[in-house]
Here is the input.
Amino acid sequence: MIFRAVLGFLLAKLATLLANLAWFPVLGRGHPDAGRPGPAVHPAERVSLLIPMRNEAGRLARFLPAALAQAGVAELIVLDDGSTDGSAALAGSLLADTPHARLVAGTAPPAGWVGKNWACQQLADQASGELLVFCDADVLLAPGAVRAVLAERARQRADLFSVFPRQLTGGLGDALLTPLIDDVLLCFLPFGLLSVDVPAAATANGSLLALHRQTCSALGGFSSVRAELVEDVALARAARRAGCKLGLALGGNLVQTQMYSGYSEAVRGLGRGLLAVTGGARWRLVAAAGWHLVVYTLPFLAAGRRRRWLLPLGLGLAERLLVALKCHPRAAWQTVLTPLYPLAFVPVAGQAMRRRQYWKGRSYP
Here is the structure.
């Protein structure tokens, strides 16, 4: 019974994954000039590149110059969200003598606001462009990345367009967890569902989010998701309810991110919004964590005694390999870690079930 359930689950995931391998767009692929430096896709519309920043001093020297070098950006605004690690001073020095870029000091979030959501709302208020591109400070943009984003947004005719960046890992610890983001996306969301009125399929990624100012205003800006820890998904669902078209792409070589520095930070970061994804139901979270132990770890333990478990073990390894080849081919070696992913995820589930979450010096219920 368990064997058949595991096998059926893996085959269903692989069916979705195989469709997405051909279907899910990757920035720059299929558009030979989309990733090259050059003018914006819509030269008549000003593009504002908007970066919320809080305690990112360790990343700015590498990531901010890449944002400054983006072609087709009329203005770049970095908002310091109360950093305490010297980020503001470092950002100010990196932005100096760049006419189209400026640093803005953000204000403390009002009651009921999540910090990042308030920072993004302030950025939207400060921006003068018609096209707003929100980009996290831990996102590394290759030359021509913004142009590729605008090209793909136009190709998909998306009102709300976002990118799932390629996940860069600093070591074995975060390599055990961050690939799960790509796995969930490609194995559970057939790309075609974005164009269908299916509420559960409405998703976005706040790491890089592009939309027209009119769309932002029509949705109520970030005020409509002010208290949401997973604000990107909430914004996507609001956009779907408003009749907006959603668009997604993988970042490929053009948009990459290193979200966490090590395992403990990955546990805190992934855990803070995980409960919201399950609708606030702790039993679902516990059930999911237990089920993935059965699906991916049990076959590894049982294959030595019962040969039939080699089949689900092989399917699990194939799933992880195919996801890596689609999203980050150089990370294909992480396939060997597949039986360990569910074990590494247990502390994430435990973190998610805490009544308060702490992130970058702030506390959230």
